[in-house]
Design brief:
The structure holds 2 protein chains of 2 kinds. By secondary structure, chain A is an alpha/beta fold. Chain A has helices at residues 37-51, 69-78, 94-108, 127-135, 188-194, 232-242; strands at 2-6, 9-11, 18-19, 26-27, 33-35, 57-64, 82-87, 112-116, 139-149, 152-158, 163-169, 172-176, 199-202, 212-218, 227-229. The model of chain A has no long low-confidence stretch (mean pLDDT 96). The radius of gyration of chain B is 20 Å and the shape is globular. Chain B has 2 domains: 4-148, HUPs (Rossmann fold, 3-Layer(aba) Sandwich); 172-290, TPP-binding domain (Rossmann fold, 3-Layer(aba) Sandwich). Classes of the chains: A alpha/beta, B alpha/beta. At the A-B interface, strand 3, helix 3, helix 4, strand 9 and strand 11 of A face helix 3, helix 4, strand 5, strand 7 and strand 8 of B.
Chain lengths: 245, 296
């Protein structure tokens, strides 16, 4: 089984990010960039599938500038076999990304596309579903458990009400949620080995046309700090005074 | 022609759509996948599904159905994101996730980076939108003509097993009062008795942090935050919650935030309207006894 894992380079998900004063973008000065944490969980799951003998080849792919090589090298160190960097400096949205990924999936013919449910920068939660639609493959989103079966997967999905178990045939697109696994730390041998693994630079196969354009970025009004109280009685009085009970 | 279709999974989902429909200001219809309603727009298409099938099973039919609309909108939820993005993908249409404001029918506001930044985005129709109802002033949906709608489905992915809707407490995304807790609640039984007790006394819902869910103290559907539920109650009581950026992303629109934490330096105090540095195990039972209107 061949697994394709699309990854995204995002600004450090634990950093405090602000909009630039000009409103033209995010102020990422001095901040680190990482593999989108949900994509890292997807990659970890793929590596475990390979370790269990369920997968034979793990391909990671990203679309972006040459700076994304850093995240692809890390993915190779975690356990991917080959990385593809589709180079562009064009603005992207889930429509453009899913169209490009669909073109690659048709060429690479994976049995499974495993990816994060959303990127932590844009929080859009669209690309996996759009990709599945374009390929006309079944989809399972918000996966918290994936079991390989003879001709597909049994996936436990997180839902608004709790959980649901779905059976999906392969090839399929599965997007992963936080509780699927805990990604490993990268061991030194992995980092050294990753240097000799193939990283292909490619040009986009599609026009990368965006459907949604971001006009400006702004910081939301901050919530002002409130009051501190020193006893439960004061707390009760303060809550009651707000008139929200 | 500009026209909005609201797609709702059930009546309560549809009932949260009035504010968005009014703010967009276009004529509108509704498509109700399950249940029935006399309000919802000029036409209320009722599919009458006994169970909502997987997104890949119904998206194809819906993609054909929606093609005359300039806008197709859903209340933001896990299931709506699952479905809306699949239909948008089939149609290669624009999609705005988690709209919180409307400047014009082609310009929307949406949060990104866990709500730290608000983006203004432009999208040409046809546009799919999932929106957060609490960011739009409540408005009634108009009454209309009910149109029964048959759906012949060819199943793709199959649901093997699903959790049932639990009756009792209000839904987190619609609750007026939420009592929420983190890891200091220790275990599932303590979480339920301490937080659940106060929530029930106030007629509210129970929420949890990611840490509480990850450690098995609380079920996943109670998670509040960037990747969990976005809530906007009148009163949010955060007990033993330090206040990560990801958690704050889910509670910022609460009217009043009360923080109870032993650590006076916890970031939650920076956003709380009322804070007390104290042990939640001392405070919560007393609140239950002393808050006006709380049933003991």
């Amino acid at each position: 089984m061949r697994i394709l894992i699309p990854i995204k380079r995002v600004v450090d998900p634990y950093a405090k990010v602000r909009a630039l004063p000009s409103g033209e973008g995010l102020d990422t000065a001095g901040l680190k960039f990482e593999i989108n944490p949900f994509d890292e969980i997807a990659l970890e799951e793929a590596v475990r599938m390979k370790e269990r003998g369920e997968a034979t080849e793990l391909l990671v792919i990203t679309i972006g500038g040459s700076e994304c090589e850093e995240q692809l090298r890390k993915a190779l160190a975690i356990g991917a076999d080959k990385a593809i960097l589709v180079e562009t400096s064009a603005p992207l949205d889930p429509s453009a990304v899913s169209t490009e990924l669909a073109a690659w999936a048709k060429e690479l013919q994976p049995d499974l596309i495993l990816m994060g449910k959303q990127g932590t920068e844009n929080d859009e939660n669209q690309t996996g579903q759009r990709l599945a639609a374009k390929l006309d493959w079944p989809q399972a989103t918000f996966a918290s458990k994936i079991e390989k079966q003879s001709s597909g997967f049994q996936v436990t999905r997180e839902t608004d009400l709790g959980e649901e178990v779905v059976a999906v045939a392969q090839p399929a697109v599965i997007t992963v949620d936080l509780r699927l696994n805990e990604p490993r730390y990268i061991a030194l041998p992995g980092i050294i080995k990753a240097r000799s693994k193939p990283l292909e630079r490619a040009t986009p196969k599609t026009a990368l046309t965006v459907k949604v354009k971001t006009r400006s970025y702004a910081n939301p009004p901050a919530r002002g700090a409130g009051i501190r109280v020193n006893s439960v009685d004061e707390l009760v009085a303060a809550i009651a005074a707000k008139g929200v009970l | 022609m500009s026209r909005l279709l609201l797609i709702a999974f059930d009546e309560s989902d549809l009932n949260s759509c009035g504010g968005f429909a009014a703010a967009l200001g276009l004529p509108y219809d509704a498509l109700l996948l399950s249940g029935s309603s006399a309000v919802g727009g000029e036409k209320i298409f009722q599919a009458g599904l006994a169970e909502i099938p997987t997104a890949d099973t119904i998206a194809g039919l819906l993609a054909v159905f929606v093609h005359t609309y300039s806008h197709v909108a859903f209340v933001s939820s896990m299931r709506s994101k699952d479905l809306a993005a699949r239909i948008a993908g089939i149609l290669d249409a624009a999609m705005i996730t988690d709209a919180i404001g409307i400047e014009s029918p082609t310009t929307f506001l949406r949060p990104m980076v866990a709500g730290a930044v608000i983006a203004t985005v432009d999208a040409e129709p046809p546009a799919f939108v999932t929106f957060r109802p609490s960011n739009f002033a409540a408005a009634e949906l108009t009454a209309g003509t009910v149109v029964p709608m048959g759906m012949e489905l060819a199943p793709r992915s199959q649901i093997v097993k699903a959790s049932a809707k639990t009756a009792g407490r209000p839904d987190l995304s619609q609750a007026k009062i939420i009592v929420s807790g983190g890891k200091p609640l220790k275990d599932a039984a303590t979480f339920e008795s301490v937080l659940g007790g106060l929530a029930d006394a106030l007629g509210g819902a129970v929420g949890a942090t990611r840490a509480a869910v990850d450690t098995g103290i609380a079920p996943n559907e109670l998670q509040v935050g960037q990747t969990g539920k976005i809530v906007a109650p009148n009163l949010y009581i955060a007990a033993g919650i330090s206040g990560s950026t990801q958690h704050m992303a889910g509670i910022k629109d609460s009217k009043v935030i009360v923080a109870i934490n032993k650590d006076g330096d916890a970031p939650i105090f920076e956003v709380a309207d009322i804070g007390i540095v104290a042990d939640l195990f001392d405070v919560l039972p007393q609140l239950q006894a002393k808050l006006p209107g709380a049933r003991s």
